[in-house]
Every structure is written in structure tokens, then in C-alpha cells.
Amino acid sequence: MNKVTSYFSVGLVAGLLLATASFAYIQKGKLQSASGSSLGNTVDSKVLKAAHNLDQTHPVHLAMVHMQERLLAYSGGSMSLDIYPGGQLGPQTQCIEQLQNGALDITVVSASPMEGFVPEMAVFSLPYVFRDRNHYWSVLDSAIGREVLQMGVEKQLRGLSFYDAGSRNFYTKNELVKHPDDLDGVKIRVMNSKTAMEMIRLMGGSPTPISWGELYSALQQGTVDGAENNLPSFYSSKHYEVCKKFSLNGHTRIPDMVMVSEAVWNSLSPQMQTWLEAAAQDASRFQRELWQRESRLAMDAAKEAGVEFFTPEQAPFVESVQPMLESYKGTAVGDLLQQIRNYNSN
After folding, report:
1. Contact, 206 vs 186, CB < 8 A?
2. For domain 3-117+152-165+254-294, which architecture applies?
């Protein structure tokens, strides 16, 4: 089995293992719903409608299936999830809005679009907020992380847990990005985000917003010279076929968030709330391990395809974006940024 086949089979194998494990919890009720992901719903069970925009082999979906199974186990079959993957219920922003208006119970979204509903969450889109992965998870698992999860309650948005979405890194067609100077005049695809564009400008690059679906052809045609994203996305998008240089500079770490409608949360009994929180935390731990494995597989497969990797010194990159970070002093985002950067993960 080659690396490409191995990488994409991981999700399938994990899904089959999860399905097998869940059999012990399923005694009656339907096995399949319109979404294709409802397990063990009984006539009297409380079924929560959940959605995300990723495919069924992605770590986020496998983690949601795991959450579904743990919820069935904790509740003895009286609570479950009905999962709609692949953007069936709309893109991330629409799913957040559906939580607010009661059309959806649970969603998994990036912290980036949450910024439009909870301004403080803009902190996650800033560069070099976290020192490394250990600092990242130490903060998210601390009182700071728990406070962030509650910041949207007044907007009808309650956070249950965080998922790993890795670090975003530069990858290019020609030269490795070893120093900010290497970005001089280089056209880098970014999300349509003021923060992302300003970051690239400060580092010396030329930010070019392009939709994700159009990026492969843009790289091929030379519309852009490179892009930035995490390892699994770099590989699954097949950008490794065009970009053979990958710099592990880790400029941002933007978590995914499991969100529940505050109205739905308040409709649950205290016992149901406890079950739901426990299932969400179990799934978070599961997803972190799965993400790490997927990242390793993606790197190995990309190397086999001829991609060169390099880990640069972070200090010059951090120095280049200091004006952006300092511009938030005296704001709610700046206060949260200071708390995060001062947090001791030891």
C-alpha cells in the first residue's frame, strides 16, 4: 500500500473501529438517518442535531462520531447526536447563526468565524500568540480556555470544547521560506481576512485572497507563489503536487470549537448537561491524538512525493509582526493576548 492510499485509509479504518465500538451501546432504534450518521436513536431519546463542514474521513467528523458514542454510553442511550457532515447545513458562519436562531443544536467551527460573533476570539487569528503546541493546549485546557468557551453565552453560543486544527505554515513553489526576507514580493494566498493579510504584509509578502477551491489552479497558473495552512490540509488538497517547499514556521494556531446553542443547553436537565460536557471532553482528547497521527502521515507522504521541509528560527518572524500585536494594547483582545502569552505551561 503506498503512502497516498495509506493516508486516506486511516479515516476509514478509524471510522470502522468506532462503529464497532459503538455496537455495544446500540440495543434498539434506527442505525441510519437522513444524515447518515445517527446511531442508536430510540423513541424516547433526546437527539441533538449537529453539523460541520468537513468530510467523513476528517478528524473532526471522527471526533464527532466518538462524541456521539460517548453520549450514548453516558446517558444509557437516552441522548444522541444526529450528525450532518460536509457542509450539508451550510458553511460555518451559517451554522453559527443557526445555533443562535434554534435551527441547529451543535456545530464545530473554526475560532476564526467566531470572531464575527465574539470579538475577543480575534486573538486566535493573530500570529505567534502561542509559543508551541504544549503552550497552546495548556492555555486551552486552563481557566483561560474555559473562560473563552463561555464568552459567547450572551450571543446564544456556548462552547463545549476545543479541537486541534494544527499550526498554519508557509508552503511555496520555488524557494523555502527560512526568514521573513524570503517572503519579499512573494504572492501568498491567504483567507479573506484583514488580520491574515496584514500579517503577510508585515512579513514582507504580498497577500492574495483566493477561495480554497480555486487555490490549486491558482498555484498551477502562477497567480500565487504559495499559500499557508496545516499539514493535513496541504496534503489532502494535493497542493504538494505543485508546492515542493514547506516551512514549519507555525505562525498561527487557530483551534476548532464545539459549540452548542445556549437555548438548547438551557433546555437540558443538569444531568444531561453533565453527560454532554463529558462526551465533548472525551471527543476533544480523542481528536487531538487523531490529528497528531494525521499530521505525521501527511508529512511522511509529502516527503515521499518530493516535498522539502524546513524548520526556521521563529524570532525574526515574531519580530516582524510585533506592530500588529502591539496595536491591540488596551483592548479586550489585547488583554486576552497578554493573559495567553504570560501563561506558564510548565
Report:
1. yes
2. 3-Layer(aba) Sandwich (3.40)
Alpha-carbon distances, residue 231 vs 78, 188, 293 (angstroms): 38, 16, 11
Are the C-beta atoms of residues 114 and 121 closer than 8 Å to each other? Answer: yes
* pLDDT tens per residue across span 8-22: 444 444 444 444 344
Radius of gyration for the chain, computed over Cα atoms and rounded to the nearest angstrom = 20
Tell me the pairing of strands 187-190 and 157-163.
unpaired
From residue 19, alpha-carbon distances to 14, 64, 72, 104 in Å are 9, 12, 13, 24
Three-state secondary-structure class, residue 7: helix
Window from 30-39, 62-71, 172-181, 201-210 with minimum mean pLDDT: 30-39
297 within 8 A of 233, measured Cβ to Cβ: no
Q: What are phi and psi of 178, to 5 degrees?
A: -100, -20
Residues 260-278: pLDDT tens digits? 999 999 999 999 999 999 9
What distance in Å separates the CA atoms of residue 236 and residue 204, rounded to the nearest whole number? 28
**In the chain, where does the domain assigned CATH 3.40.190.170 lie?**
3-117+152-165+254-294, 168-252+300-342
- Give the DSSP H/E element, type plus range, for residue 225: none
**From the candidate CATH numbers 2.70.98.10, 3.40.190.170, 3.30.300.30, 1.10.3370.10, the one assigned to the domain spanning 168-252+300-342:** 3.40.190.170
Question: How big is the chain, counted in residues?
Answer: 346
SS3 169: strand
